[in-house]
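User: For a benchmark we're assembling, each entry needs the component sequences followed by a predicted structure for the full assembly. Here are entry 17's components. Please fill in the structure.
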Amino acid sequence: MSTAGPLARFQKRRRRRKRRSRKGDLLAPQATASDGSAPIAGVAASSGGGGSGSSGGSGSGEEPVHEFESQVAFSSGQPHEGSPETLFRQNPDRSFFRQFFNERMRFSDGFETEIWAFHDESGAKIFPAPTIRVTEGEIAHVLLKAGKGPHTIHFHGIEPDPRNDGVGHTAFEVTGGFTYQWQPQKGEPGNPNQGAAGSYFYHCHVNTVLHVQMGMFGPLIVDPIVHPAFPVPQGGRRAFVDGPVYDVATEALIVSWEVDPRWHELNHAAGLDGQDVGLNRFEPSRFYLLGGTLNGGSGGGATNTDGSSGSGGGGRVLEIKEVRARLGGLPTLVRFLNGSYFPTRAFFNRPSSGLPPATDGVDVEVISHDGRPFRHTDDPNGPSEPCGVDGPLLLNRLAFGAAERYDLILHPKKRGTFVAQVEWYDWIGDADAQVNSVAKATREFRIIVE
Amino acid sequence: MTRLSTLFVFAVPLAFGVGLWLVVLHHAEGGRERAEPSLLLHWLRDATLALPAVVIAVWLATLLADRLLAAEPALPRRWRVGLIGALTGAAASITLAAGSPLHGWLFGAQEAHTLPLYIHMARDALMALVVALPLATSLAAFLLAGRPLRAPTFAARADRRRPAVEVGPTGAVPALLSSVATLPSVPPEPRDGVSGFDVMGTLTTRRTFLRYGAGGLAAAGLTGAGIAGWSRPSRAAVVSETGVLELFVNEGHVAMVDGALVYMRGFGERPTNLTDPNPSLTIEPHVFLRPTAQLPNGQLVKSHFFPFTAVPPPEGCPTPAGPASGTTIYHVLRRQYWASFFPRRTIIAEQGSTIRLSVTNRLLDPHSFVISGDRAPGGPPAAPIVSRNIAPGATEQISFTAPPPGTYLYHDTQNAPVNRVLGLHGVLIVVPSDPWRLSDKLGAAEFERQWLWLCNDIEPEWGRLTRMGQTVDPVRTPALPRYFTLNDRSGFHSIGASTNHEINRLAREETKPCGWARETDVRNFSKSPAAGQIVTGQLIRAVNAGIAIHQLHWHGNHVFTVRRNGFDFSRRDGFVDAEGHVNIQQSEDVLELDPLDRKETMLPMKPPPDAVPVVVANQKEEFVFPMHCHAEMSQTAGGGLYPGGIVSDWILMPPLPR
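Assistant: Structure for entry 17:
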C-alpha cells in the first residue's frame, strides 16, 4: 500500500526513540549524557533538542521527546513540527481552512479586548470562529495555518487517532500548516455504541488555558446520516440518527463565555518558561452569551446571528439575544456549549425583564450530552432507544460545566416572548458546599414563539 | 530463532547445573520443605521453575556484554569469552539465589539456619557462582568457537513495541504465583518477614524487573553485592493480626511539581514532625479483609494492588486473552484475572469487613476523621458514615462495619474545607464479593481492572497561614489554588514523562489507563464470549477532595458514567435533578466533578471511533490520548507551566497479531 510509507517511517522513528528510553531504563545515569543535551531550564534533556522553547517552530522532522528533567522542560519543550504530512490521506468529503488571527474586538456592551481566533478562507474575522459542520461518515479535512507561534486544533469530543487530535505532548504542535483528517462515526438506530451526531467545538490545544480564553475556538456540529427507517420531513433534520426531528430554520447555538481582561494582555507562551503569570487566577469581569441562529448551514459556513452584535477593528462578535420557535411547526433545537472555565446553569422557569419564563411558552427537553444521545440502556441485548421515546426528559434548569455540551429541544406551547437566563458560578465551590449558591453573573436571552 | 535457541543452550545447563548444586547444598545443610519430594524431583522442579527467569537473566547479561564488548573492540579473545562467561554466570547465580524467598513461599521451605533473607540470598548467590562461572565460561568458549567474538544478541526486536506480552517474568511468574496462591482473600503467612506478595510485587513490572535485574548484574560484577537491588519496601504484607490501621495527623512540607515546598497536612502512617524532610502525610494502600473461619476478626494487609490472588498487570497494563475472532482490531479480555494498583491514601475494605482505625492527632488544633455519606441527586448529603473528633494529642479508636460497596471520601471536616484541602483526606473503597464489579447489585458494572483518581487543589497561602498558627477563614482568605494534583502528582509527573523512572512507574500503575482495543457495549459490561473471557472497559473512580469544580475531559473515547456519590444512575427513566444535572447512565467526554464528588465511570477502550478506518487498521504503535481537566486553570502549576496540573494519559495498545 502506497500510503504505508510515511506512517511506517514515523513509527520507526518512534520505536528508535523508545529504544533509547529503554536503554535509559537499564543504564539510567548514561541516558542523558549519551544523548548529549544538558538538562538546563527550558531545554528537554533528550535527543532532538525538542525543547525549542517558547518562540516557535524548529522545522519538521524533529522527534517529540519522552522524558523531561523538569516541568519547565516539559512545558516549554512540546514537540513542534512545521508542516507535517497527513498520514493515510484520503479524498475529503468536506474541507475546511482555518488560520490564526488576532484582532481587537468590541462586544455589544462596548467592551473591547484582544481576541485570538481562527478565520476561514474568506478571511472574515468573526468570533467565535466559523462553524465546522459535517455529516456522519464524511471524511473531513481541516487545514490549519498556525501564524506566528505554534498552534493546533483539537476537535473536542471528536475522537480520531493522536496525530489528528491536536495535542502537543501526544503528537505535535504545528508551526506551519497541517491538515487534520477525521471521519465522524456513522450512527445506527438503537445502538448506544455508535454514532457521532451532535454538538462539539474545536479549539487550540497549545497553552490551552490561555489560548481558549483568548478566543481560539469555534462550534463543530455533526449531522446524522439519514436512515430509511427514520425519514426526515421537509425543512427538518434529526438531531441524531433515530433522534427527534427539529426545525432547520430556527436551530440555535448558545455559548457561555467570559473574559478576564488581564489575561488578554499576555503573550502566546505566557508561563511556559516557569514564570508566574497568574494563569491559576481567573477573574472574569465580562460575561457573554455567544452564538446565534445556525440557519441550517451545513457547508461549514460562518455562524450567522440574528442577535445584535458588536463590531470594531474589522472583527465581528457573534452574540445571541434570542431564539425563535414556531408554534405548530417542527420544534427548535438549541445547542448549549460552555466555552468558559466556570460552571454555568441555564434557568427556564424564572421571569425577568418583565417577561414570563420560557417554560410558559415552551417545554424544554434535553436529548443529548457531549455529542451522545441519552438512551435507555437497560436491555443488554435489545435496541437502545432514545430516552425521549417514552416521553421527553423535561427540565427547567440545566447545569453545564466547562467544555460540556447539551442539546435541548424547545416544544412551543403558545405564542409570545419569553425569557431564560444563564448564570455563572465561581469554579471554586462555596466553603463547604458541593455547589455554589451565589452567581457571579446572569445573562438572559429571549425565546420568541411565533 | 537460532539466536533464541542459542540463548536456551546457555540457560538450560546453567539453570539445571547450578540448580542441582543449590538443591544439594540446601539438602546437605538440613533445609526441609513441607511434603518434600525426592531429591531428583526437587532438583528438576526447582530448575524447571527457575528456567524462565534464568533465560531472562542470561538475556540481560548478554545485552550488557554486548555493550561492554562493543566499547572495547581491542579486547583479546580469551578476555571476551571470560567476560561473557562471568556475566551470564553471575546473572544465573543471582537469579537462582533471588528465587529463595519465592521458593520458600511456594513450597513452605524451612531453612536449617535463621540467616536474614538478604544474607541468605547473598550467600546462595556466591555459592552458586562456584559452579556457574566455570560452567558459563565453558559454554561461552564452546558456543563462540569460530564465531566473531561478540555476545550473542537475543533482542526480540519485532516484539519490543509490545512490552507487556513479550517478557516472561511479567506475565509468566505472577501468573504462576497466582495459580499457586489458591486461597482467595487469605494471604499466606509471612515468612522471613517477606510474604509471597512481596515477591510478586517486586517482580511486578517489566521496567522494574529490568532495572533491578540490570542493577543487580552490574553490582554483582563490581562488588558482589547485587542483591541490594532487591531490598525494596514490601508492597503487600500482613501488617497486623489485630487488624488496626494506625493513622497519624501530621504536618510537613511537600515538594510541588515545580520544586516549590508547600506546607501540608495529612493522615500519615508513622509519626513525623514538621521539620522532617520526608514527612508521613499519606499511607500506603491497606486492605481490610472480611472474616473467615481461620481469621474470625478479619485481617489487615498492606498492598499496592488488589485482589492479592490476582495478577498485577505489567506496568499497570492488563494484557488481553487474545484477539477477538473475526476482527482485525478487537480483543477479548481475561475475566476476573487482573489485580488493580491503587495510589497512596487508599483504604480498601472487603464487604463484610470491619474497619479498625487508630487515629492520633499530633497537632495542636482539633481534627476529625469523617467518612461522608451518600448523596441523593440534587439533595443534601446523608449523615456521615463515621464522624469522630480528635483532640490535640489524643488518639481515637474507630471501628465500623464497611458500608455498602462503593467509593467514599475520608477527610477532616474541621474548619472545612481548609484541613481537607491541606491534605487531610483519602479514599475508602468497599469492594463487593466479586471484586471485579462495582457492587453486588444485579447488572453492576464489571471491569477488566479499575483505577482510582483522587483530585486535589493545593493552596499554599492557606498552608502558610496555618503554618504560622492561624486558623484560615476560607471566606476572608478565598482559595486561590496554585497546584493541582491527580493521585498526588501533577503535570509531567502525572503522565509519567519524567526522567525519574520510579515516578513514571507509579503513574503507569496507578493513574494511566492502558489496554487493548475491545468492542465494549455500554448496555452490558459482562459480555463473556467464553469462560474466563470478557469484553468490557476499565472502571475509573474519580474523587474530588479539592475545592475547585473539575471537568475531566477524555480524548480518544467518551466514558460511560454509572454512579455519582453512591447513587446508581438508572439505565432507564432518567430525570433532571434540582441542580440541573441529568441523572441517567450516559456517555460523555467531560465528567463534571464538584468538590467532594465521587463518580464512577467506564472507559470503554474502543479504537478511536472517528479516526479514518485505515489509520486504525494500521496501528503499529501505542495510541496515547490525554485526559485533562477543562476548567483550564487546573492545568497550571505555580501560575503557569501548562500542562502542569490535573492531567493524565490513557493508552490504547496496538492490536495483537492475528
